[in-house]
Amino acid sequence: MKRLSLQRRITIGLAVSLAVIFSAQLWAASHSARRVVENNIAENLTHEIENLLAALDAGPDGVVALKPDAETPIYSRVYSGHYFVIHHGGGVIRSRSLWDEEFPALSDGIRRVPGPKGQTLLAKTATFNKGGRRAAITVAEDVTAIDAEIAAFRNRYAALAAGALILLLGAQMIIVRVALRPLERARMNAVRLERGESEMMETDVPAELTPFIAQINRLADITRKRLARSRNALGDLAHALKTPLAAIMQAAENEKVKGDAELHLLLNQSAAKMSRLMDKELGKARLA
């Protein structure tokens, strides 16, 4: 399995981190904008409920009705996006803007509900006691256009975030590439050290690499000293064996030994073999 390079790991880590951050910011921004708008609309709905409650009139017969001038123009225009429904013991009072659309009775609170012509409504319901009768007033406002604006803002922010992410990743790749150049120089120094072109690695490196380079230099120094001791030991051994080897070769030329052909051959072969081994090891020591 091919391992990821350090640069690619950093790039992937940064990309994931930035994507999470931008996504969180996008959610927070759109959610905050939606909450602010909904809170403002909820305040307006509260005022409308209070106005409708003040305009409710309970007659002598107990029938609850709105005063004639209570319905403002926004509630008179069909599908205007502003609606109200009043449920009371005697029936239902609806704004003209609802036309013939049905609007369900809702419990107290604020919520989103589907409205006429595919509209999305933010509706608020509050229950009161008017003239001894229970009256539940629901006021709703169309937030379809606001949702569309928030969605457009979210799309614009996502596009900007994507562009910023690409730019940041590009800048990060350049920065990492420049920052990793000392590693390439260190690799070339290691190659020269391996070839014997230098005895130590350069220590002019970033602080993060200093302990690593120092350890390599210590290992190189230890290895160099061990090789020196090995060369000296081999040299000493070779010189120490020269005298016995010369004695063996001299003994092989003795007349008595020559009389024994088998012994003479064995001594000559052994001496030649020892001489080749000594030369070989001395050559290795010199190369090391």
Question: Can you describe this structure?
Answer:
With 288 residues, the chain is an alpha+beta fold. The protein has two domains: 6-152, 2-Layer Sandwich (Beta-Lactamase), CATH 3.30.450; 197-287, Helix Hairpins (Orthogonal Bundle), CATH 1.10.287. It contains six helices and seven strands. The protein has helices at residues 6-55, 144-179, 181-195, 210-252, 255-259, 261-287; strands at 56-58, 64-66, 82-88, 91-94, 109-114, 120-130, 133-142. It has a five-stranded antiparallel sheet. Strands 1-2 form a two-stranded antiparallel ribbon. Helix 4 (210-252) packs antiparallel against helix 6.
Keywords for this structure?
single chain; alpha+beta; Beta-Lactamase; Helix Hairpins; 2 domains
